[in-house]
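Sample intake sheet
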Amino acid sequence: MMGTVYLDRHGLKLGYSNGRLTLAMPGGDKQTLMIGEIEQIMVLGHVHFSHDAIAALLREKIPVVFSNLRGILSGAEGRQIRLRQRQFDLMRDPSAQLVTARALVQAKLRGQARLLRQWKITVGHEISSHLLASHHCHDLEHLRGHEGAAARGFFNGFREHIGKTRFKFERRIHHPPPDPVNALLSLAYTLLMNEVEVGVCAAGLDAAGGFYHASENGRPALLMDLMEPLRPLADRFSARLLMGELEPEDFAVEAVACFLRDGRRGLVYKAWEKQLVDTLHWRGEHISWRRLIHLQVRELAHWLDGRSEAPRFWHLDDP
């Protein structure tokens, strides 16, 4: 199986003919892909889809995630109205919000502390203190304060870990990323969010209905929530590339934003796909990292529909 196809070339035209997707590049080059070998498509550029291509993708139930538009093309299966109603009910319950938010943040902080221990960075004890404090938070405001402070401590450790490379990193800046390290972190988080979105769509939940992040103006709050325990996975991935496979010359700055050059983004996509198909042992079985990401959504869904007493999310310490 080909797995995931990434489309990040602006002006690309996607068509369909005789069981194959056709890709027409802006420069005139063409490529075809067997549709039966594709599991999902991630769109990171401005791509034109023909009617035949859309029909074929829907018919084959291949999800298409439009990262730049924060949307997904998928069939209607899995959109359980009762589960969504339960999601909306608990979103209005401060107690339920706090239970979910604590579980998300604590899993993230455990993973961050574990990752710094693996890197032999001593700043990890700061995160542990915020993890302990999170158990005594009685509202989201204080929980967010400890999570934010822990994040600053983590990125101090991240800076120390990559300190012997040619990359310079002062602090995490989201929009727009001003330097190569922030640019790679942002791309890794985007790829992670795309995977979370596929899982949310399959589970039938509303991507905008969050518990920890505020739900407003179509913001993908639930995706942002479910990313939190998984961020150390993207952080570890980014650090590995910065320390072994990428150089500062692989990046360019346009206006105030830094980004990976065209010829090097493919390296990141390939490495990300390799990581997602690798397996880990979790709860008595061997599963892929991609499957683990999707199962995090199921963890929340099982709590929403009453099959578990509390949401339990993966963290890096899990075997």
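Comment: The chain has ten helices and twelve strands. The radius of gyration is 20 Å.
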